[in-house]
Amino acid sequence: VGLLIGTELIWKEIKKSGKQLIITTLTQSLGTFFIVSLVFAVVFYFAGIPLYLAFIFGGIALATAPAPALSIVREFKTDGPVTRTLIPMAALDDMVGVVVFFSTIGIISANISEQKVPIYIVLF
């Protein structure tokens, strides 16, 4: 699916709505991460569950499935401003989700581990 999304990206289209697209994607993705993490942190605090799990759930909440959007666009051969925004946004949303999730996992594992974790393991 990632490859199909990549073939739909046209850089001229992204440049036209680039700033709006990036701001919307980051706001939506990071907003979801922070709200889900906050809600789970409150619940976990009162339940006595370690709070770092709330951030893991926040990272999991970023996972989206771009396949339904792509299949609808291809099946109905839609074209318009929403379609031209939807596909790049789905791709950027997945990229942000992967970066946030693995950064969160790396930071949490480095903080709860009793051994030192080299920075290259956290980053790569």
From TrEMBL:
Pfam families named among the record's database cross-references: Na_H_Exchanger
Location of the protein in the cell: Membrane
Keyword Membrane in record: yes
Protein topology in the membrane: Multi-pass membrane protein
Transmembrane portions of the chain: 21-46, 52-73, 85-108
Entry GO MF terms: antiporter activity
A GO cellular component annotation in the UniProt record: membrane
Entry's Gene Ontology BP terms: proton transmembrane transport
Gene3D superfamilies, per database record: 1.20.1530.20
Keyword entries, A-Z: Membrane, Transmembrane, Transmembrane helix
Keyword Membrane: yes
UniProt domain Cation/H+ exchanger transmembrane: residue ranges: 4-113
Protein name per its UniProtKB record: Potassium transporter
Organism: Clostridium perfringens
